[in-house]
Amino acid sequence: MTTLLTLVSSLLWWVLYSSIGALFFALIGWSVLRWTERCAVVFNRIYLACLLWTMIGLLLITGVAAYEGHLHPPYAALLNSGLLRCALVLDMLIGTFLLWRLTPRIDAHRIRLGSACMAVAAIMAISFGIATSLA
Questions:
Q1: Residue 110: helix, strand or coil by DSSP?
Q2: Does the reported pTM lie above 0.85?
Q3: In angstroms, rounded to a whole number, what is the distance separating the alpha carbons of residues 32 and 97?
Q4: Which of 67, 78, 105, 124 has the least CB density, counted as fewest CB within 10 Å?
Q5: Portion of the chain with pLDDT greater than 90, in percent
Q6: How many CA atoms lie within 13 A of 83 on its CB side?
C-alpha cells in the first residue's frame, strides 16, 4: 500500500511541476511565436504542446540523472555530462516537433518550422540560464 501511495504521489507531483513549467514556457513561446509569425497564435495549444514537452523532458532529464547517479545537489557534474547534453538536444527536437505540429495560428494555418525552432531556442536559453545560475 505504501508503494502505491508513493507512486501516486510521485505522479501527481510530476504533473504539477510539469504544468507550472509548461505555463512559464508557454508564456515565453507565445510571445516569441507572436513575434516571428507576425500574427496571433492560439495560446492554449502552445500550453498543451509545452505541457507534453515538459513532461517528456522531465522524464528524460530524471532518467539521465538517475543513470549517472546525480539525483541530489550539487548538480554541476550533471551539467557537464555528455549524456545530458544529448538528452537536451533530443528534448529540443521533441519540443520543436510538438510546437510545430500542435500550434495553429489564428488564421488556421500551422506555424512555420523555423518559428517553432526559434521559440524552443528562446525557451531553452532562458531556462538553461536560470538552471546554471541556481546550480
A1: strand
A2: yes
A3: 16
A4: 67
A5: 76
A6: 13
